[in-house]
Design goal:
Layout: E1 13-14, E2 35-36, H1 44-53, E3 63-69, E4 72-80, E5 84-88, E6 96-98, H2 109-118, E7 122-127, E8 130-135, E9 141-145, E10 157-161, E11 165-170, H3 172-177, H4 184-188, E12 195-200, E13 219-224
Parallel strand pairs: 1-11, 5-6
Antiparallel strand pairs: 2-10, 3-4, 3-13, 5-7, 7-8, 8-11, 9-10, 9-12, 12-13
């Protein structure tokens, strides 16, 4: 998929909400969006930076983005002020957060292979009904967000989004109303409801060999400003 620097985003197809409901099993070939996620992993460095950026009274941005390769964060946090942000790997795939410009010491062949597949990446767009993620790349992305699931569910699901499709990854109203008394992760980290995790190409969770996102080669942590 090619993306012109000056061209508008392509006409993405939105997954209907019925399509996003969990399935009984873990299909491999079908576009399933309900691969179970397991326990969330957030490294301490990212969280401390996030807390710093989300101090009361700081309204200069609506979210910050961190790029990770396995358990290591690469580069600094990217503050987002514009209503839309392209996150891609190689110039000139768009205007925004170019991951290819960050300095990484990771020599893993798998990480390098996944990097080469990020391409046009994704687009984050803040709309009236929430924040949408558009898959502009040629490979699936995987998303975990508290607002994508039933408030009564005990675990967060990992949703698979195919190229050319989009998903409402974050809903502010749902995030404010989230109450997960049985969710140890949510109780330990109350800002988890305002965090979305996105992995390029590789999924994680019960249906995969990777149980935690920290085992994924290339992934993003998006922290939304709750104010």
């Amino acid at each position: 998929m090619e993306a012109e620097l000056e061209s508008p985003p392509p006409p993405y197809s939105r997954y209907p909400m019925d399509f996003l409901k969990p399935t009984a099993d873990c299909p491999d070939a079908v576009p399933s969006s309900a691969e179970t996620g397991g326990t969330n992993y957030l490294a301490p460095e990212g969280l401390s930076d996030s807390q710093l950026l989300l101090e009361p009274g700081d309204r200069s941005h609506w979210c910050v983005v961190a790029y990770w390769e396995e358990k290591t964060r690469v580069g600094r946090l990217y503050c987002v002020q514009e209503p839309s942000l392209d996150i891609f790997y190689d110039l000139p795939q768009g205007n925004g957060f170019c991951l290819g410009q960050l300095n990484s010491d990771n020599k893993s062949q798998l990480v390098q292979k996944v990097r080469s597949k990020i391409g046009c990446g994704i687009q984050l767009t803040r709309e009236v009904d929430g924040v949408w993620v558009y898959n502009r790349s040629s490979y699936p992305i995987f998303i975990k967000s508290a607002t994508l699931d039933n408030p009564d569910s005990r675990t967060l699901l990992v949703h698979k989004v195919f190229p050319g499709f989009s998903i409402k990854a974050f809903d502010y109203e749902k995030a404010y109303s989230l109450q997960r008394p049985n969710d140890h992760e949510f109780m330990q980290q109350p800002w988890t409801g305002f965090t979305v995790q996105i992995s390029f190409v590789k999924g994680w969770g019960q249906c995969y060999t990777r149980q935690f996102i920290s085992s994924c080669p290339c992934w993003l942590e998006v922290i939304f400003n709750s104010r």
